[in-house]
Write a structure and sequence with these properties.
Blueprint (H helix, E strand, L loop, with lengths): L7 H8 L20 H17 L2 H19 L5 E7 L11 E7 L11 E4 L1
Antiparallel strand pairs: 1-2, 2-3
């Protein structure tokens, strides 16, 4: 089963998870302004991304430039992986290709923790 087959309800049941619904969990994190390059890129790409009406176009033309700008502005304190296999446990259905994974690890060739992923 791919990660995208999980719903929040199913994941909570399957793995005995608890959700904590709090507001402003990132309130103490300082804002990071978009660079001029990012603004220019998004202004150019937006029409193409929305016109194609595909998820792939949206993440390539909108999400990827945002993540690259984040990587650049944070002076490579985070690393990005795109389209990589993230099989954790086949038996539990924790497998599949993730669109993007953000890690705090300095590794750029090997996926290591800590990480955030979007599938």
């Amino acid at each position: 089963m791919a990660y995208s087959d999980f719903s929040l309800v199913k994941a909570k049941q399957e793995f005995s998870l608890t959700t904590l619904e709090k507001r402003d969990i990132f309130a103490a994190v300082p804002e990071l302004a978009a660079s001029n390059l990012l603004v220019e890129t998004l202004n150019y790409n937006l029409v193409i991304a929305l016109g194609s009406n595909s998820e792939k176009a949206r993440y390539e033309l909108i999400i990827a430039p945002i993540l690259v700008d984040l990587h650049r502005q944070l002076r490579e304190q985070v690393n990005l992986f795109s389209g990589v296999d993230f099989t954790v446990d086949n038996a539990k259905g924790l497998n599949g290709i993730c669109d993007f994974i953000i890690t705090k690890s300095p590794e750029i060739l090997i996926l290591t923790a800590p990480l955030i992923c979007r599938s």
